Amino acid sequence: MKRHREPSGWGALQPPPGYYSADGRPPDALRRALILDWAVSQRIASGWRVETRSETQVVMVRGRPPNHVLHALLTALTCFLWAAVWLVIGVTNKVERVALTVDAMGDIVTVDGPPRTP
To answer: pTM to 2 decimals?
Structure first.
């Protein structure tokens, strides 16, 4: 699958200073929620959208699957001329998923998920 351009530093996606306590204690549930909200807002700014969310994990998705019913109708109406366009759209249009999890220490763990097949 073709990966989209990500801003530099996505591998070490951590919130700015101020989200953690000064004495090094693990963050409480409220601070972990704020850290996760920060990570989600960074992804949303890059074109991702939230698919599911819990207290400590968010699954985000980018891209949309093609509308096969519409393309089948266009293919039938154009005497199969639209089939080439439909084929190109079906091959190049992919859906990406990523799971963002905040652990007990407040670190963001990112796991790329497989695309959902129709």
So the answer is: 0.72
